[in-house]
Amino acid sequence: MSEAAAPRQALKPEATIGILGGGQLGRMLALAAARLGFKCHIFAPSPDSPAFDVVHRVTTADYNDTEALDRFANDVDVVTYEFENVPAETATFLAARVPVLPDPQILATTQDRLVEKNFIARLGIGAAAYAEVDAPAALASALERVGRPAILKTRRFGYDGKGHVAIKNGTDPAAAWREVGGQPCILEAYVPFEREISVVAARAHDGAVECFDVAENEHRDHILKISRVPAAIAETTAAEARRIAETVAAKFNYVGVLAVEMFVLREGALLVNEIAPRVHNSGHWTLDGASVSQFEQHIRAVTGWPLARPIRRGRRVEMTNLIGNEVDDYRRFLAMPGTAVHLYGKTAVRPGRKMGHVTQVFAD
Amino acid sequence: MSEAAAPRQALKPEATIGILGGGQLGRMLALAAARLGFKCHIFAPSPDSPAFDVVHRVTTADYNDTEALDRFANDVDVVTYEFENVPAETATFLAARVPVLPDPQILATTQDRLVEKNFIARLGIGAAAYAEVDAPAALASALERVGRPAILKTRRFGYDGKGHVAIKNGTDPAAAWREVGGQPCILEAYVPFEREISVVAARAHDGAVECFDVAENEHRDHILKISRVPAAIAETTAAEARRIAETVAAKFNYVGVLAVEMFVLREGALLVNEIAPRVHNSGHWTLDGASVSQFEQHIRAVTGWPLARPIRRGRRVEMTNLIGNEVDDYRRFLAMPGTAVHLYGKTAVRPGRKMGHVTQVFAD
User: Fold this and answer.
1) Kind of pairing between the strands at B185-189 and B150-154
2) A305–B37 C-beta distance less than 8 A
3) What are phi and psi of B325, to 5 degrees?
4) H-helix segments, B186-278
5) Domains delineated in chain A
6) Which chain A residues touch B339 with a CB distance below 8 Å?
7) CB contact at 8 A, A55 and B54
8) Of A271, A339, A15, nearest to A124 (Cα)?
9) Spatial separation of the C-alpha atoms in residues A231 and A243, rounded to whole Å
10) Does residue A341 have a pLDDT over 90?
11) A341 DSSP assignment
């Protein structure tokens, strides 16, 4: 049984990387690992996992199947994860057997919006006003403190707008509470932002950090639709955004790629919206638009390899998600010069499901 | 049983591409296919095949195992191959069951240097003087016609300088004949070339052709060491090189990517050295140095998708092979800006074995 620590030495290219989660992020991580000569073993509950198609070794099992986790741990040299809702217990179980990066304790923070908000507040980084709501009665007092409009969000398992309810002037708090399922929540003040941006940053064992260019993100129905690079913000704002991401990464003693989503207010002030302890949709542009991708940077970090310094290709880059039926649009993009089409190999098309993306690199 | 013809309609992204051969070319083809949402099934004789690591479905069997080939044909929507020494019988057997692209008949031409030379000659394209040598006696008369220095080459299964013997002024023809194993050969005049170049071209079902920039190639011990793009040749020479590649592809009614290696003589005249009916080492630079890679172009062609127009990134691009023990050099390249490292996942290091490559994109 190996020690539950970061590998002290860089892994050799023939090593095997274990990835928890079999979605498109796991798939793109595995593809990046393959370029560097690594083998990957994907652990995911669904036999339909898109990442299974690009690796030779897979485990189809629940995250609480300790026997399967044991076998998985024995087969791999390091474990990482493609999404933050891997049960923290799973990561902890594995970490007793094999290095798990980023550190599983980070999941405990980012899986709970309240804990995450408290973490950000302690760092002295700006965020929207918020209050804990653990019962209907608490919602009333939270609304008094935070004000309206506000957003009631479940503390756990929210993504792409799931588990969010807006509370405007006429909204009945009791109805909102029912709508989120009466779960522990936080109430967040609505932020009248000008733009949404994100910083995707990689941090290595030795503390070295490389940030990709700040992306400007456009959402539709709470799902990322377009990321544009560089963001149309002042360089001082971009520098501050990178500084925030570096502060978060350093505080976590983070190893790997993480994304910090932020709101830009009218005067350029930044408020952190969310931390994603993983590769991020707003970094997909790096596959075609940068000299190194977020996926390769993550693999480099968790294997103890040095990070690369990313160089953007072209004057600007635009990444567009193909969501649900939009996947059929891929044909339209195939013959466009400087345009790269990525499809995730998902057979079932569902509304809101991310099926692929398209990257356009504009030389000038 | 499906018809042995090119698929009339473009394959859907969830289709499965069968690849004969499990080396690094099959591996990089599979990685390119995965980006586009395709699944791949690799058929290769060796359980150690590097391509196995990046696909979920593999068949480990000999190329004459008709039972395994039958099962393979049933599982895939189209078959392609990563190298030209796949037995033509294998390709023909499969072609009766599933579309095989490029057409297996092309293998019959390119697997035999004599047939290939005759094919080039009939196209009116320049090549070194040559003569058939099927017995020791024929070698003497061939030497009279071709002159010295010359190179005696086995007609079949030669690559990376294997099956080549130089015949200089003092060389005993009988010894040369013994050295190539007394097999059917051709004798080729030695060409006093200035440069070696290659054109990697993709051709689609509808006859559309897209050439990548002409590469200039530097060999060491008969193995490609460096490809530089663009080649240091006049634009008229480059245009003529592309025209030759297009002529060859059109004559074959080719579907997929092929490479034509040529010698550039002092005055800029071009002689064709070799045709490779597959993706080619001198096109590896396109993975990082062009808006679309040779591997993606090949996948697009064989699946009936439109080709992309390749745009070179940077002013010049240089690809260096990591051969044998040189693979350990990868560390040196990891932190170099604008440099991409590719390792093929081969565990056994052998002299002359291609273990990986490095691409450097120079902005200016």
Assistant:
1) antiparallel
2) no
3) -65, -15
4) 235-251
5) 16-100 (3.40.50.20), 129-189 (3.30.1490.20), 195-362 (3.30.470.20)
6) 291, 308
7) yes
8) A271
9) 16
10) yes
11) E
How many beta-carbon pairs below 8 A join chains A and B? 118
Phi, psi (rounded to 5 degrees) for A342: -125, 125
Tell me whether residues A309 and B34 touch, CB distance under 8 A. no
Backbone angles phi, psi at A311, to 5 degrees: -115, 125
- What would the two tokens of residue A344 be? 């995730």
Q: In chain A, whose CA is at the least distance from the CA of B355?
A: A37
pLDDT of residue A5: 45
Between B56, B345, B361, which is nearest A37 by CB? Answer: B345
> pLDDT tens digits for B217-253?
999 999 999 999 999 999 999 999 999 999 999 999 9
Per-residue pLDDT at B122 exceeds 50 = yes
Number of H helices, E strands in chain A: 11, 17
Contacts with A304 (C-beta within 8 Å, 6 or more apart), sequence order: A6, A7, A8, A9, A10, A11, A204, A205
Amino acid B203 reads: R
pLDDT category, A351, cuts 50, 70, 90?
Answer: very high
For residues A114, A117, A123 and A126, what is the CA-based torsion angle, rounded to 10 degrees? -160
Number of CB atoms found within 10 A of residue B161's CB: 13
Type of residue found at B45: P
Question: CB B337 to CB A52 under 8 A?
Answer: no
Q: What is the rounded average pLDDT for all residues in chain B? A: 94
Place of tokens 């005993």: B172
